[in-house]
Amino acid sequence: MTTPQLSTGSGFGARSTAADVLHGRDLSGRLALVTGGYSGLGLETTRALAAAGAHVVVPARRPLTAKEALDGIEDVEVDELDLSDLESVRDFTGRFLASDRPLDIVINNAGIMACPETRVGPGWEAQFAVNHLGHYALVNRLWPALARGGGARVVSVSSAGHHCSGIHWDDVHFRDGYDKVRAYGQAKTANALFAVHLDTLGRPMGVRAFSLHPGKILTPLQRHLTTGEMVAAGWIDEDGHLVDPTFKTPEQGAATQVWAATSPHLDGMGGVYCEDCDIAEPAATDDDSMTGVRDHATDPEQAARLWTLSAELTGVDAFATTTP
Fold first, then answer.
1. What is the maximal distance between C-alpha atoms in the chain?
2. CA 174 to CA 163: how far, in whole Å?
3. Of the residues 155, 162, 246, 269, which has the fewest C-beta atoms closer than 10 A?
4. Active-site residue, selected from the candidate residues 38, 136, 178, 184
5. Mean pLDDT of 291-310
6. DSSP for 264-306?
7. 178 tagged catalytic
8. Tell me: the pLDDT tens digits for 244-287?
9. Cα separation of 145 and 281, whole Å?
10. Which residues are bridge partners to 77 per DSSP?
11. Can you state the percent helix, strand and coil of the chain, rounding each to 5?
């Protein structure tokens, strides 16, 4: 049974940092993989895990840029990966599996937000393709290394944006009219549902999965939003200065994904959506605060349906009898 959406009393909160979460922890001998681990929250996640002793693999669409951003952080390796290209996913995972190393942590951190209508691969909507399908294929192809890890965790960075949309089952690629906010919401719901079903499938092998909302943070993720849109949202003023006091620093924003990947509070648990370094509670149906998790993002039937669709689209399923 999936873990209930109930607080663990972790002792951490919205203002905790990734370093706080890992204070006194020794991750020596642990191998972590962080997509997008060279920018924004991903960079802070990589920094915190490496500082605690983990060896961190950072697959990057721009390897040279990644190496420059990660310069000075020890125990980090960079390889090339474009999540919008399934051949790139196949090539990267082939190289990693050839190293014959078990994986202890995967953090699906990379993503795009509210971009102009963009098509990748066979005409897929880019946010669904990059944020969900690319990570779905990545984790499935890495499954042999995860299953060897002995208690591995897979963490998917979702968002409160999942409140904006469930899965558009009749048009997941928005071919009948693109809405960048709903497309982002669908992709973030997909991240949460992926964790639900992966946890169900991986639990017998000791692999647990989680999703999370990192909080509101100004990072390169907002590059497709105009200043006017962010002013209208109440995030910044006309001069670009932050005015929303609930925003976190990148170090605070990275905390929940690091907590989900490493916390002993989550031992024996999985499939849950987290926020502010704890398991989030279900969202009230009449609450528009964007806190907590919506039912459509934790529904096991929708999670199984999404897994089947993702397997059909990508041609990859580690739990099927054969995988190309």
1. 56
2. 18
3. 246
4. 184
5. 97
6. GGGTT--S-EEETTEEPPBPPTT--S--SB-GGGT-HHHHHHH
7. no
8. 777 799 999 999 999 999 999 999 999 999 999 999 999 987 66
9. 32
10. 57
11. 40, 15, 45
